[in-house]
Specification:
alpha+beta, Alpha-D-Glucose-1,6-Bisphosphate, Chain A, domain 4, 7-stranded antiparallel β-sheet, 28% helix
Amino acid sequence: MITAQNLIDAPLEKVWQFWTLPEHIVKWNSPSPDWHTPVADNDLKVGGKFKYVMKAKDGSEEFDFEGLYTNLKSLSLIEYKLFDDRAGSVYFDEIDGKVKITEIFEPEKQISESMQRQWCQAVIDNFKAYVEAS
């Protein structure tokens, strides 16, 4: 399993909304300035589908991050299963007016775990910067 996390200096409700609403997802869901997410669809309910299209801005690479929600606890937990059968969880823990966000997921077999960990951590770091600046 791969884990990435960060402590966000914002109220829990804001962190949850910015993580789950497509109009925000397209603004933070990338690991670096040369990537972006031009499309984000999110049906936030158990059995609901999500799909984020992630692209290199130069057009050299693209992939879809998509799956189904398997468990949701508002303002606390999101569990999902990707269409390649890997599972993941995102935890939102309130700590002294801040929110610790932790994502844990099964790695892909074709890509090194360290690269996947760095990618996910960079996305969560970008999320933190976006939320705290908004």
